[in-house]
Amino acid sequence: MLKLFFKCFAILSFPTLHKLGSGLGCVIYFCSPKSAKIMKDNIKNSKLAKDDAHFKQILNENIAETGKSIFETFAIWQKKEPELLAAVKQLHNWNVVENALAAGKGIIFLTPHLGCFEITSIYYGSKHPITVLYRAPKMKWLMPLIQTGRTRTGVTLAEANASGVRKLMQALKRGEAIGILPDQIPAAGEGEWADFFGKPAYTMTLASKLAEKTGATVIIAFGERLAHGAGYDVYFTATQLGAINTPALLNKAIETQIAQKPSQYLWRYNRHKQRRHALEKQNPI
Q1: Which of 46, 81, 186, 274 stands 20 to 30 A from 128 (CA)?
Q2: Residues 198, 260, 217, 69: what is their CA dihedral angle, to the nearest 10 degrees?
Q3: What is the mean pLDDT of residues 178-200?
Q4: Which residues touch 130 (CB under 8 Å, ≥6 apart)?
Q5: What is the distance between the alpha carbons of residues 195 and 272, in angstroms, rounded to a whole number?
Q6: What pTM was computed for the model?
């Protein structure tokens, strides 16, 4: 029954999914006071809202975008690759990627929880190999969906543990790309505390270590969710190692990216906490 339920998402169009997702966002917001408080506090703390009216605008849009992101993720995991690639309407700064490929030292794609981060690796993987780091979900029944949905042509998954980090290193040494969510809270011992929008957040050191060891080009990728389910625009921003070589600088780079479209960031994610348990004590690099 569960498999059948998720298969339904493959049938629905993106406009329908996003319309239903907007409603889901409202349900989540009003039925989860704790989540709603985190969302409001994080938006206020970011100081991206110019005034109260702008704050309410970002909040209301973010409530809808949160629901859209959930339904579209389930859909992306189920839909066929040609339909997903057709949903990418425009690429911005693709020349940045071409220059990095020509350099031949690999690419580290940093994709924050902004817009549709699932579409970026699928699009890139349709053209070139990419290994994507992921953290196993607490809800184990999601694991088969994640493995099937994210493993596409050219896309390999690497779990966030010692073995997975070795996979990332091997891919970079081959001159291939890897994908990392840089604003995901790392396991204990795998990060440092640094300000994120003015408040301490436990921040990964993995991306800068990989870049330093391999000389790979660092690119921030962002899949903007277009209005009314019209598809996605994907942006690529080249970033020098010096701009991310400390957790504080990495967070600044993420903040700059979020400021482009604050209504599409995952504000209900509580970055200002540390995971209780480590998957691995130390990174093997």
Answers
A1: 186
A2: 90
A3: 94
A4: 109, 121, 124, 154, 155, 156, 171, 176, 177, 178, 179
A5: 9
A6: 0.92
